[in-house]
Design goal:
The complex is a heterodimer of chains A (about 625) and B (about 500). Chain A is built from 26 helices and 2 strands. With about 625 residues, chain A is mostly helical. In chain A, strand 1 and strand 2 form a beta hairpin. A two-stranded antiparallel sheet of chain B has the order 1-2.
């Protein structure tokens, strides 16, 4: 026993302490509890990993029974293998840095204890999700992180936009969870267990499904869940709105950890997907389309957090692409590097917002000199996400694109085009914020060390994080990804990134005004993309409004009040009903007559009492 | 007189005692009622402690003569199905008394007396093992609720009370007819005796006869559940009832119907129950979705919660008629869960009403600012109701849906949409009441939870977590009893089912 349960327990205690007593605690005490809890989890993770290293076989710990369903035990069981080890390091490591950063970022905000309590609760559920040894416990973490996401998006609940975004996030995720839960029912019904250690071997013994079958259905339903949590088409719509939450939340939950849960889940269920090629293909296609589609929107946005939000959707698409073409190790590798550079992008953006009180790129400009640390660290993240050679992002993106090329060359080319767009929109943001002349701001200040130190740590990881060979580490868990390294393909992909940067330089530094002119020339197409293809409006008109109005006008007013209640209240109907019943009773049976007499007198008595009580 | 008899007798004694006391001493009346209810609760804990899972038959049984001709006996006992429902009743009675402390200021003596009489009737329903005794308790519980709504309710209380009374009365008349017919057939009102006759094959109905008997009981129970489309009395009754009345109505009285289905409909009429199952399941699923959709658009908080009950109890009925162990376990678990979380919701809505004197959602907004604790407690309750894992409803819904998936995957797929909608109606309600900036008059009128209000809510909050995380406290007794009920529903049924099946399928 390595006491794995302590890893999620520390943040849970932090949540309880701050949540119950936080209002009476000083800020220093709240910080100590919240950051200390995550630090303890991080250290305990290291200790456990050290003890189990090299972790060649999964380590399972069974605690007590949660639900005994007929003959099947569903327990509080935690497991640690190399996949969850990578996730643990990301969640506790990046989580720790973001907690530290938040101490500075949230210093002036009301509801301080509430913020850190929610953040700790999130860590608890996320660690439960990662360590769960069965589907139902995974689902606990899965819904739990969704709850914390809801609470933190709506943190500034006085703003209607924040509480709307929070509701949207939770409800859209519930649609995904609907699919996930159906998958769970199917797994239970077919395998008689929900334990990973028993489901996956059982799956592996089955033949690969050539067409439609149970495993394909399970795979697709799990994918529905993943598209919700990981913001993929068609359920990605909640993530851009989720930027209403405080920026550290965007970094931790909506970039580095929670939104990658879908990728983790697909990788965890690789046994199922490898036996359901049709479902796996769906993963790849949805991922690739999302990557491309979100990148196009990212190019046109002016809110710095929205740019990065669409970037997150797009990068998650890459991860799904990687998993979908069978390169599960590469997908997790990208999850690993993305956690660093995307958390950094958001924290850097937060530092800019902290400096200016402004998140519209059009009102920034020329910040390089005022906030140098923020600039240089953000630049590291931008280089990494653009796939500039030898940064972390280069290695992971390269792995995915190579595997995609082996699977289907068109996927590689579309992915490479997306890589160029990625570099373009990220550097667009960098150039608009830090280069050129100030556009309408007077005062800006660099953030305090408690914020810049985490930035520096993440910058180092964004540059060097690719030298930890995640695919090699995970190789025993997944079948070897097909396709060997081809220098030519890697060079093309890296070149696409560099071209994107160059283009951004041309548009936003070398030739100011070119961007506006191009946008004007594109006309309707630009407006379509700028308005995010009107997908929100489409969902509103095609789904939300019909459900609400249909429920109100048809179900409630017409059916419930009109039809059902109308029938009940109708005197004629009642008389007929009573008459009909009476005829049935008239059976010639003396006892039933006696009962009727009894009943009648009771009613009369009650009626008299009712009259008297008025 | 054993422990169970004492738990039953205590509220009746309290009722009589309260009637004998002078009406002027209101504080003393309240305290006495609370003391009686708390003692009954503490005694009932002894039932849980003394209950032996796995032991055959009923426990804490008393079987004494009551009426000699026709032979009607005072026969009561406890099994895993009734155990938690009795505890739910004894827990929610003191809670209901606490929340009425200031809310009820008129006719205090009658209110608490009737409240204890209600508890007496409800406990009796869950432990009666004689059909006539069951029917008597069923009616006894009806009367105080009628008065609670009709006397202490809101503006349209008379309409709501009469509607409630007529609906349930229509149902119970059918049940009475069924009971009497059953007696002419079997010659006994005794439940255990009837079970014995059923499983030995001595109780053999002609098909139409079995169907009619099943329907007589079923309709009575279905009205009480309430099963779509027999639910329209519920929103009216809830809106007009005082808080404590709503709590007992939603948390316990609706369970009478579910309990009846499991106690009588399935074991006594297994063939008809199985034959009707597809239709009943269809109504249950329709109720799940319909109740949730109609809840979504309610402008009145109590009506909203009432319609969520239609949806949640659809899960219970669905679970029962899957005829799977998981479905039945989930159904019983969900009965308790619904009692806790919906009871808590009605209490919280009542707290809001005491502050602002309105049930309209539009009259609220920004309540989280003046009342952060109330907001936090409401949030936890709303999440429990929406089926968040680690809280109670999730476990019940999971078991029901898993059972449904085993019976027919399409049932689970349809019913699970109710879980999406649950998030919708709960979060939307929460947003409109608690989020945003508080208008000036809300800020002035709404204050945070007081100590008595905390006292009523804390046990329910604790149970939401307990039922959600440590199910092994509750499930073993339920599992054991349900296995017996399922066993009973298989007797004398499969033979005929097999005959109807093509031989190939039997071989498989």
């Amino acid at each position: 026993m390595q006491q794995l349960w302590l890893i999620p327990l520390f943040p849970l205690l932090g949540f309880l302490l701050n949540g119950l007593l936080g209002r009476r605690l000083s800020k220093a005490a709240i910080n100590a509890v919240a950051v200390g809890a995550v630090l303890a989890s991080f250290l305990w993770t290291l200790k456990v990993l050290g003890a189990l290293w090299p972790l060649e076989a999964p380590h399972l710990e069974r605690y007590f029974t949660w639900i005994q369903a007929d003959q099947v035990r569903i327990g509080y069981d935690l497991a640690l293998d190399r996949l969850s080890a990578v996730m643990l390091l990301v969640v506790t490591g990046v989580g720790l840095l973001i907690h530290i950063y938040s101490v500075g970022y949230m210093a002036q905000e009301g509801g301080y204890y509430r913020f850190f309590a929610y953040l700790n609760l999130f860590m608890f559920f996320m660690l439960t999700l990662v360590l769960a040894a069965n589907f139902l416990l995974l689902f606990v973490g899965w819904e739990g992180v969704g709850l914390c996401s809801y609470l933190l998006i709506g943190f500034w609940f006085l703003k209607a936009s924040a509480s709307n975004a929070a509701n949207k996030a939770f409800i859209v995720n519930r649609v995904g969870d609907f699919g996930f839960s159906l998958a769970i029912y199917l797994i239970f019904a077919n395998f008689g267990t929900l334990d990973f250690a028993r489901v996956f071997p059982a799956v592996s013994r089955q033949p690969v499904e050539s067409g439609w079958g149970t495993l394909t259905a399970i795979g697709l339903l799990l994918l529905v869940g993943a598209t919700g949590k990981s913001a993929q088409i068609p359920l990605y719509v909640w993530l851009p709105d989720a930027m209403e939450g405080p920026t550290p939340v965007s970094a931790l939950i909506h970039a580095a950890t929670m939104v990658t849960a879908g990728v983790y889940m697909v990788a965890r269920c690789s046994a199922i997907y490898l036996h359901a090629p049709a479902a796996l293909e769906a993963v790849a296609i949805i991922g690739l389309l999302t990557a491309f589609f979100a990148a196009t929107i990212g190019i046109t946005q002016f809110d710095i957090k929205k740019v990065f939000a669409y970037s997150t959707i797009s990068q998650l698409g890459y991860m799904f692409l990687g998993a979908g073409v069978g390169a599960f190790g590469a997908a997790i590798f990208h999850l690993w590097t993305h956690a660093f550079f995307k958390a950094l992008l958001f924290l850097g953006a937060g530092s800019v917002i902290h400096a200016l009180g402004e998140q519209d790129l059009r009102r920034m400009g020329g910040l390089r000199g005022k906030t140098p640390l923020t600039f240089w660290t953000l630049l590291c993240a931008a280089l990494s996400i653009s796939g500039v050679p030898f940064t972390a992002g280069f290695f992971s993106k390269d792995e995915i694109l190579l595997a995609a090329h082996h699977h289907a060359p068109w996927m590689y080319w579309l992915g490479t085009l997306t890589a160029a767009m990625t570099a373009f929109y990220v550097f667009r943001a960098i150039f608009l914020a830090f280069f050129g002349e100030p556009r309408g701001w007077r005062h800006a200040h660099e953030s305090p060390p408690v914020m810049t130190l985490p930035l520096a740590a993440l910058a180092a990881l964004s540059l060097a994080g690719g030298y930890f060979d995640v695919p090699g580490f995970l190789a025993p868990l997944f079948p070897a990804a097909a396709g060997h390294h081809q220098a030519g393909l890697a060079a093309v992909a890296a070149g696409a990134g560099l071209a994107g940067i160059a283009l951004a330089w041309l548009f936003y530094v070398a030739r100011p005004g070119l961007a506006e002119r191009t946008a004007a020339r594109l006309g309707a197409l630009y407006r379509l993309v700028y308005n995010k293809y009107f997908v929100d409006e489409l969902y509103e008109a095609a789904l939300l409004r019909p459900v609400v109005e249909g429920s109100r006008r048809l179900l409630w007013h017409k059916v419930d009040v009109g039809l059902i209640d109308g029938a009940v209240n109708g005197v004629g109907a009642r008389a007929c009903g009573v008459g009909g019943v009476l005829r049935l009773i008239q059976s010639g049976n003396i006892r039933s007559y006696a009962a009727w007499v009894l009943l009648g007198s009771l009613v009369a008595l009650l009626a008299a009492l009712a009259g008297g009580s008025r | 007189m054993n422990l169970l008899d004492a738990v039953l007798a205590l509220p009746l004694a309290g009722f009589l005692l309260l009637l004998a006391l002078p009406r002027e001493r209101e504080e003393a009346l309240r305290r006495l009622a609370l003391a009686v209810a708390l003692s009954a609760f503490l005694l009932s804990l002894g039932l849980a402690a003394g209950y032996r899972t796995g032991a055959a038959g009923f426990q804490f049984v008393t079987d004494a003569a009551w009426i000699s001709q026709p032979k009607i006996r005072y026969h009561v006992g406890l099994d895993g199905l009734s155990l938690w429902l009795v505890l739910l009743t004894t827990l929610l009675t003191p809670v209901g008394i606490l929340v009425s402390w200031r809310a009820v200021s008129r006719r205090v003596k009658e209110f608490y007396a009737l409240f204890l009489l209600l508890e007496f009737g409800l406990i009796g329903v869950f432990i009666a093992l004689d059909l006539v005794l069951f029917y008597v308790f069923w009616e006894v519980s009806l009367v105080p609720m009628y008065f609670l709504i009709g006397v202490w309710g809101h503006e349209r209380r008379i309409y709501a009370a009469v509607k409630f009374f007529l609906f349930t009365m229509a149902g119970s008349v059918l049940m009475l007819a069924g009971i009497i017919y059953l007696y002419t057939y079997a010659g006994t009102f005794d439940y255990t005796e009837l079970l014995r006759l059923e499983s030995s094959g001595a109780l053999h109905f002609r098909p139409t006869e079995g169907w009619l008997l099943f329907l007589a009981f079923f309709i009575s129970f279905a009205i009480k559940v309430p099963l779509f489309p027999l639910h329209t009395w519920l929103p009216d009754a809830h809106v007009e009832a005082p808080t404590a009345g709503s709590v007992m109505l939603a948390s316990v009285m609706l369970k009478m119907g579910c309990y009846g289905l499991l106690r009588f409909s399935l074991p006594l009429f297994p063939q008809a129950a199985r034959d009707c199952a597809p239709w009943i399941v269809a109504l249950a699923i329709a109720g799940i979705i319909y109740g949730a959709l109609v809840a979504l658009v309610q402008p009145n908080m109590k009506k909203l919660v009432a319609y969520t009950s239609v949806s949640h109890l659809g899960f219970v009925v669905l679970g029962i008629f899957t005829f799977t162990p998981l479905g039945l376990d989930g159904a019983v678990y969900q009965m308790v869960n619904h009692g806790i979380s919906t009871g808590a919701l009605f209490i919280l809505v009542g707290y809001l009403y005491e502050r602002r004197h309105s049930l309209e959602i539009a009259d609220y907004g920004g309540v989280a600012t003046p009342a952060p604790n109330l907001a936090a407690v409401f949030m936890i309750t709303a999440l429990a109701s929406a089926g968040l894992p680690t809280l109670n409803n999730f476990v019940g819904e999971y078991l029901v849906l898993q059972g449904a998936a085993q019976a027919d995957f399409r049932w689970a797929a349809l019913a699970a949409t109710g879980v999406i909608l649950a998030a919708g109606y709960m979060l939307w309600l929460y947003q409109r009441v608690f989020f945003g900036a508080a208008p000036a008059d809300v800020g002035r009128q709404v204050y945070d939870l007081g100590r008595r209000e905390w006292a009523a809510m804390l046990p329910l909050l604790a149970l939401m977590v307990w039922l959600g995380t440590a199910t092994e406290t509750f499930l073993p007794a339920i599992r054991d009893t349900n296995a017996r009920i399922l066993e009973q529903t298989r007797s004398n049924v499969e033979v005929r089912v097999e005959l109807r099946r093509p031989p190939l399928e039997v071989a498989r």
